[in-house]
From TrEMBL:
It is found in: Cell membrane. This is Membrane protein. Residues 89-170 form the YetF C-terminal domain. The chain crosses the membrane at residues 12-34, 46-65, 71-87. The keyword Hydrolase does not apply. Its main location: membrane. Residues 24-82 form the YetF-like N-terminal transmembrane domain. Keywords: Cell membrane, Membrane, Transmembrane, Transmembrane helix. InterPro entries: DUF421, UPF0702_alpha/beta_dom_sf, YetF_N. Belongs to the UPF0702 family. Gene3D superfamilies: bsu07140 like domains. One of its GO terms (cellular component) is plasma membrane.
Length: 173
């Protein structure tokens, strides 16, 4: 309760100004560096999102970090993300920073070893199948544990419809 009363007009003003400044910078940098800045296409993109959030919170709430320091840190994060996106064109770099998608189910067969590798339980898998409105295992064509940690369920009500192989090109079996 005592900490609640420590808020002064001066510190409240600093927080509001820092918040507005960093908010404007995030919008500006996202417009300059592109929408990819907040995508979840790779684990590196996710790390970027977390880093930006942490930097925003620190800049807004910490009296030891100035708006200029927060702006520089934010610019550096965006620059490193843009640089990594550029170098991801090269397989060696991409392999070094990206996870590989992993097949968890192939048609109605659960791949137990891959569940173990991904640290996903059958309960987690069933939850994702329910979320994807799967009502019958025979409708499942593939379930993929994506590089971002998301689980994608590819299914079809038409049992004669075949999954296009290019969708699983980079997925580890």
């Amino acid at each position: 309760m005592e900490k609640l009363l420590d808020l002064t007009i001066s510190s409240a003003g600093r927080i509001v100004i820092s918040c507005l400044g960093i908010y404007i910078l995030v919008i500006a940098f996202t417009r300059i560096f592109g929408k990819r800045s907040f995508s979840k296409m790779s684990s590196f993109d996710f790390a970027m999102t977390v880093a930006v959030g942490s930097l925003i919170a620190t800049t807004v709430l910490s009296s030891t970090v100035s708006l200029a320091e927060g702006a520089l840190g934010l610019l550096a994060i965006y620059f490193f993300q843009l640089t990594a996106a550029f170098f991801r064109r090269y397989k060696n770099f991409r392999d070094a920073i990206d996870n590989t998608p992993l097949l968890l189910m192939q048609q109605d067969q659960i791949l137990q070893e891959n569940l173990r590798k991904a640290r996903v339980t059958e309960g987690d898998l069933r939850a994702k199948l329910r979320e994807a409105n799967v009502t019958d295992y025979s409708a499942i064509q593939a379930v993929v544990f994506e590089t971002t940690g998301d689980i994608t369920v590819l299914h079809s009500k038409d049992m004669n419809e075949n999954l296009k192989s290019w969708l699983l090109t980079d997925v580890a079996v």
